[in-house]
Structures are given as C-alpha cells and as structure tokens.
Amino acid sequence: MIERTPILNLATHLILAVGLVLILVPIWLAFVAATHDLQAVNSAPVEFWPGDQLWPNLKEAWALSDFGQKFVNSFIVAIGVVVGKITLACLTAFALVFFQFRGRMVIFWAIFITLMLPLEVRIVPTYAVAANALSPFQTIMDWTGISWLLNSLAGIEVSLEWNLLNSYTGLILPLVATATGTFLYRQFFLTIPDELVEAARMDGAGPLRFLWDILIPLSKTNIAALATIMFVYAWNQYLWPLLVVTDRANYGVVVVQLSDLVPDQLTTGGGTPTWHLAMAATMVVMLPPILIVIFMQRWFVRGLINTDK
Amino acid sequence: MRRAHFKFSWIVPLLLAPQLLVIFTFFYWPSAQALYWAFTLEQPWGGGNTWVGLQNFRKVLSDPYYWGSVRVSVIYALATTVLAMGMALTLALFVDRQLAGYRAWRVGIIWPYAVAAPAVGLAFNFVFNPGAGIFSVINTLSPGWWDLSKYPWQAVTAIVIAGAWKQVAYSFIFFLAALQSIPRSLTEAAAMDGARPLRRMIDLQLPLLTPTFFFLLVINITDSFTDSFGIVDTLTGGGPFRATDLMVYKIYSDGFRGFDYSGAAAQSIILMCLVMALTFIQFRYVERRVHYT
Question: How far is CA A277 from CA A23, A54, A63, A238, B136, in A?
Fold first, then answer.
C-alpha cells in the first residue's frame, strides 16, 4: 500500500522519540551515576554524561555485595525454574490432551485455578509450608488416623520433616507451582492433528515414544518461548527469596541483594549516600534478563502472548 | 475436540503426579491454611489456635491503617494502569505504522519488561532522591521543597511513576500484537475509501483493540496489587507515615515483622478475593478476545 504522509511520518518519529526518551531517561541517569565517583554523584550540578569510574565502581559494588556466589545462585534458581516448569507443564499437558479418563476436567480445572492467585498474595502460609514441606502430609495423616494406626500397630512415631528454608529446592519449587506453562503446552498439543496420533499408534508407538520422538521435537518453539519468560520471571523474583533465604552468603540471589544497597541511614550511617555503588550494582543485576529479552525477542513475545502472562 | 487417544494406562497418574503434588503442597495447602488462620487466633503461650470466627476480619476492617493501605493501593492501581496503558497504546499505534527503524523502536520500548521491580525502585530512588540527581537542582532553587521521605504525595507520585514505567512494555507488546493481527484487507479497504492513517487509527484500529484493552485493564490492575512489593520496598519502604503502605507490603510487614499471622492471613484472604474477582472478570473478556488469524 502506497501512501505519502510526510508530515505524519515526521510526527510519528517525534512521538516515538519522546516516548523512548521517557523510557530511557531514568535508567540513563542511573547508568551515569554508576560511572562517577562519590563526590561527583552527590555534587550540585547534575551529571548527564558518563564518567570514567564505571569499572572501579562495578568492582567495588561487586565486592561489597559479594556478588560472585549470588550470581551463581540466581542462575541456578532461574534455570531450575525454567527446567522444572517446562518438564511439569509438558508432562501434565500431554496427559490431559492425549488420554481420555474420568476426572480429566476436574484435574484440568484444579490446575487452571492456580493461575488466579500469584505467590505474593498467599505469601504468609506458603512460607509456613516451606518451613516444613511435609507438614501438609503430616496433618493429613494425623487427621485421618494413619499416624495413630502406624503408632499403635508398628510403634512408629510419624513426624515428617523437610525444611526448605535456605535451599535451592525452597527457592525453586513454589515458583514452579503455577499453571502458566501447562496452558501454553495444552494449546499447542490441541493443534496436533489426530492423524499424527493415529499414524504413530499404527506404527506401534506407545504414548511415551510418541511424546519423546514426535511431540517434543515439534514443540521446540514452545520450549524457547516458555524458557525466556520463565527465566525473566524467576530471575526477577524478590519477595519469595527475601523470605526463604536467611543465609544470604550461601543461598542469596542478586535481586534480593539490591535491598541492602538502598543508601539510607541504615547503610551509610549518616554519611554521604553511596549512590554510585548502588547504581553500579543495579546495572549488573538488570543485565542478564534484559539481554535475554533483546536477543530472544521473537520467542519471548510469542511466549508472553500465548500464556497471557 | 480430539478424537484419537491413547489407551489409559498406569503412566497417566505418573505423568500427572509431579504437577499435582507441587500445586497441592505449594498452592492448595497454603491457601487453605490462610483460610484457617484467618478464622483462628494463635494462643500466646502456644497450645494451638482457637476459633474466633470473624474477629480477625473485624479487627482488620476497623483498623484505619488498613483502610489507608486500601486507599493508596487503589490510587496506585488506577494511576499506574492509566499512565502505562495510555503510553503503551500511543506508542503501539505509531510503532505499528512500520516506518523506517520499526524494529529499533520496538526493542527500545520492550526491554523494560525485563527489569526487576526492586531494580526499578532503586533506580527511581536515585532519580527522585532530594540530595543527588535531578531533583537536587529543584532543591537548590527552593530548599526542602522536594523530599520523598517527608511528603506523602511525593512518595505516592514516585511509586506511581516507577510502577507505570515498569508496566508500559507489557501492555505495549499486547497492543502491538493485536494491531498486527488486524487483517490487511480491512486497512486497505479503509484506505481505498479515503481514510487517512489518523482516521484509520480512530475509526478502525481503536475499536478493534477493545478486547485487548479490557484484557490489559484487568491484568494491569491485578499486577499492580501483586507486583508492587519490590518497587515499594526499595523506593519508599512504605513511608513516609505509611503513605505508600500498599496491601501486599502491609501483609508482609504485619506477618513477618509484626508476627501477626492471623491478621496477615485475614488481609491475604481479602486480597485473594479481590484478585479472584478481577480474574473472573478477565476470563469473561478473554473468552471474547478477537482473533483474526
């Protein structure tokens, strides 16, 4: 379609430029602050151009927050959530789509409902479960009398205990407990033609072979899409790791570390606020998910739109 | 619906078990426990919880601080949603014209989605800080005029701007995808009838975006209730004078700093009902979402 709209084109570029500036300015100012030393950041004429202190600031902030181990932890948690979510989502959706059995819709809805309540909303009781992940089963056994039965018959005192605080499992599992990926997979599996299933069955393939040899190769784009949004989601978790990890030196993640860098009375003791270090750390922490979003843009956008999250 | 199936066998329960176990332990059980706590009170000397009926709710609902928290949460939700969606819609309409540099504009607007909420809070904490950064200039002109830690309205403005900044990318992605799914034939027909680009935006594109608009409206409001914790924690810490004590932040501080599990659970239940109500509305509109592909 050919249309000549020179004025509107100019206006379009102008509007987009203004929008982009609004989006970039805060982060640009933060970046500039990360490239100056303590005096320059806190002096009256505001710096708008980067200085030469970026590398020293990064080094100091890195050492101050002990980022080495924390970056490793962040990667472990993010990758754990990605792998866990994709595996669970794939298996569940496969069972729900390719098998017919009683109670299928009940299970479908039971999983579907988990979309409604994000972790932040049920944070207090979830924390209690993380303190002992087996407490639900203990309570059920106590209520139903199984504990009593075991105790009187075999003389075994039932006390199940599995503490998830300060562990990778505790950081990962509750983040996996939603249905986001399951629906992406379900929608994809529903588009697989019946003929493919019939052909596979005729060739003597069982369900697991069908899943492994046909469905998984076909769902590569799905996996990429889901992986990008789950990585960003897991990397950016804040409230949950803040609660579950008290042993920051060994299990802390980078995003939580930002809360310690807020330059207020607590951290500076009334001294000059160390904005340059706080901003340098912010830059480092932001970078991995931003790179993922920029380089995996196609998959990321697709995943976001298809999961509605 | 699918006609070809595999025969039901012992592997089906095995396939379903991991997900069901995880959501039972970390979703259904905690949600049930929140209900239990909300209607009981822990004894100060141990010895389990006693049933207190609606007492916890009465206590929460008669607490002026709670209503302050609800008030600022609603203000935050509405203000961030309007700002973020307005900006996202404008940008999406113009990016969709696909002029030169289309890809660069798109990436430039999408990337903030990847920034963690506490990082946004911390960066804006620097930007809005009265002692360093651009607002220190205003303060040298009229000393003490701008101080987030003193004036509630300034703190609320700061979290609203930070929250809206974070939300723009999400809405933008959905608006742009919706715009691009409008069939070309419709646009061409409108152009042949003599509708110029701006006219097409108003009379063709905007009406066709309505389903996406409602979907995003609900999602943005829900997210602002749940996603705001990181921003508040690193930007204002709930202050000054509880002016930015949003609902999730209050649940956190009552539950984990005040050790008032029953009160926090009652607040959680209220917030759960709110989020569920919003999600129900959303599902109604999701059903009606228009697809042209």
Answer: 22, 9, 10, 20, 19
